Automatic annotation (TrEMBL):
UniProt keywords, alphabetically: Signal
Record-level Gene Ontology MF annotations: hydrolase activity, acting on carbon-nitrogen (but not peptide) bonds
Domain annotation NodB homology: ranges: 61-305
Full protein name: Polysaccharide deacetylase
InterPro entries: Glyco_hydro/deAcase_b/a-brl, NODB_dom, Polysacch_Deacetylase
Amino acid sequence: MPSQLTVFGWHNVESTWCFPVTGSGVSGLERQLRQLRRYANVVPLEQALDALREGRPLPPRAVALCWDDGYHDNLRLAVPVLEKLGLPGTFFLVPGLLSRESRAWWEVAGWAFARSSRDRVEWRGMRLFTRGQAGRLCYGKASDVLRVMSADAREEALADLLDRLAPEGHPGDEDLFLDWNDAHELIRRGFSVGSHTMRHVTLAQESPEAQLADLRLSRERLEGELDVPIRTVAYPFGQSDAVSEATREATLAAGYAHGLTTEFGWNTGTTPAAHGRRVMLDPHIGFVATLAGRVAGRLRTDRDR
């Protein structure tokens, strides 16, 4: 039977403005990782992807672990659990966030809804509520609009949204993310890093030239600052409207060996090098519930085609 690799991915460990966590995220994450260690063979991500490309066998039930965005609690909470369990992990970092040259718009928008001084606003033809569950749903609607914009258009649209929401206080979004010293600490403690683009752009919404420039600059900046080879990129958002054929071409042209989407599924030797699949998890939701929901969603999508 051909080798298969399941790549599990997370973002945060504890709650953020964008990613709320019910209960303790770190205990949920440890429970998930213990289950994986017991029932699967956890392997280093990049080595496993190389093996698939080269036709070398992987152990049965091979899985790899990774985290996107570079949240600070990855180092503070996830890394100690990985060390305790003796598991490898890869962290996909955004140089713009590490250097504080960019801001995490999804967290800023989440803060603006949570701390809005208004009960509802009108924005881009939508009526958006800010309180309770309706507020969370409307934040999701606004994020879906912002996500499929180019970086320049998003910056303008986000500024307009913030002006309408008139949030109180400060989001503290810079404190949510690692800096360069933290990235060095990940390397020192034996973990791998990869690229998550230079500014966390939605690649497919940029021109082919801009995609190539962003991917190349991110790799070069990470390699220059951390003195390690950067051969794998995880695409921000990673869905079909965030990854195009131009994205895959730019990934290889920018010097990466592997590109990972958030498309649900498993990887084999025939999976395109620049279009790997992952199973994205929340630390407080168990595997059975997550996988059942993703499979059901995939079946609904296939049925609607």
